[in-house]
Design goal:
The chain is an alpha+beta fold. It has seven helices and 17 strands. The structure holds 4'-deoxy-4'-aminopyridoxal-5'-phosphate.
């Protein structure tokens, strides 16, 4: 399927991608005054069903991002979920899907501000491509770029402008031969990856930076905290993490919509523990995988199914 042919939601209508256009002077493009979401739809090839993971929670985060940017959304979370499902049906996506809702300051005029600027909203859904292969574990480095500080631009929300920092860090890491970057806060504590939250395991306790350490308030992160506590019966602490704890951790892993649970086996060319994927990372990755494919009824409420269940065809009764 050509991208131009994919149906998207824009301007209150479902239109082909090629017809959903913005101009060069669009405020959000010039000043980073937009926010977005990244949502995964998981195709279950056995049940022939597409499952969106925590769809409503993503749109609720988008509502919070919009509050920060004084963007008025044209509809509520329920309706945004319904438009996403409709896009999957219109495009007949019977494969993994990535959904990108986008809200932005849309006036085509010069002048940086948030007030008195027209807002626009779109949802794009496309077939999903793997972000990176983490089956053997990732090699990460601590970036020389610091995570944006809350008093510079609020990193807890998914604001487009914030991602210039992620892009700088990711390309630096890539240029230096690593898979991913770990960004520190301005005061030198571990924040997160370029597009992932981070967890470490020390002596059986799972640690992740608190939401007050300039992290994005990740939806996968919140889900994994619940799974660690309720399924793996592990203690989870949301606390500030020192850089050097990365070097002495038993396990390190990233979490996020694009990457799921991605184990890190090396930080700054030092092996994490024995340099192989650890048991907590592996158990969580398996749990998460099953949940996203609808194979764990306990967490069925985390999924939104897209297609009507196939009605089994009854064999015709033999005539008497
Ligand atoms: N941090 C950043 C900077 C991200 O871009 C993402 C991906 N959205 C995450 C963390 C993980 O968040 P989530 O689990 O909600 O995808």
């Amino acid at each position: 399927m050509e991208l131009g042919d994919v149906f998207v939601y824009h301007g209150g209508r479902y239109v082909p991608y090629r017809d959903a256009k913005v101009g060069l002077l669009t405020h959000g493009l010039n000043y980073g005054t937009g926010c977005f979401e990244g949502i995964r739809g998981y195709w279950d090839a056995v049940g022939l069903q597409l499952h969106f993971f925590r769809l409503r929670e993503h749109f609720e985060r988008m509502q919070r991002s919009c509050r920060l940017l004084l963007i008025e959304l044209p509809c509520g979370a329920e309706e945004m979920c319904a438009h996403t499902i409709e896009l999957a049906r219109l495009n007949d996506f019977r494969q993994d899907v990535y959904v990108r809702p986008l809200a932005f300051k849309a006036s085509e005029e010069v002048g940086v501000r948030l007030h008195n600027v027209r807002d626009d909203f779109a949802i794009v859904a496309v077939p999903h491509k793997s972000y990176f292969d983490s089956s053997q574990g990732l090699r990460a480095c601590v970036s020389s770029w610091r995570r944006m500080d809350d008093n510079t631009a609020p990193a807890r929300a998914k604001l487009t402008g914030i991602y210039v920092g992620s892009a700088l860090a990711k390309s630096e890491a890539h240029g230096n031969g690593f898979d991913e970057a770990i960004l520190l806060t301005h005061d030198g504590h571990v924040a997160e990856g370029s597009a992932e939250n981070i967890f470490i395991v020390r002596d059986g306790v799972v640690l992740t930076p608190p939401v007050t350490d300039n992290i994005l308030e990740g939806i996968t992160r919140a889900s994994l905290i619940e799974l660690c506590r309720n399924e793996l019966r592990l203690e989870v602490l949301e606390r500030t993490i020192d850089r050097s704890e990365l070097y002495v951790a038993d396990e390190v892993f990233f979490s996020g919509t694009a990457v799921g649970v991605s184990p890190v086996v090396e930080v700054d060319r030092r092996a994490v523990a024995d340099g192989t994927i650890g048991p907590v990372s592996r158990a969580l990755a398996n749990l998460y995988h099953d949940i996203t494919l609808g194979r764990n009824a306990k967490y069925g409420s985390w999924l939104t199914t897209c297609f009507a269940a196939e009605v089994p065809i009854e064999p015709l009764a033999a005539s008497a």
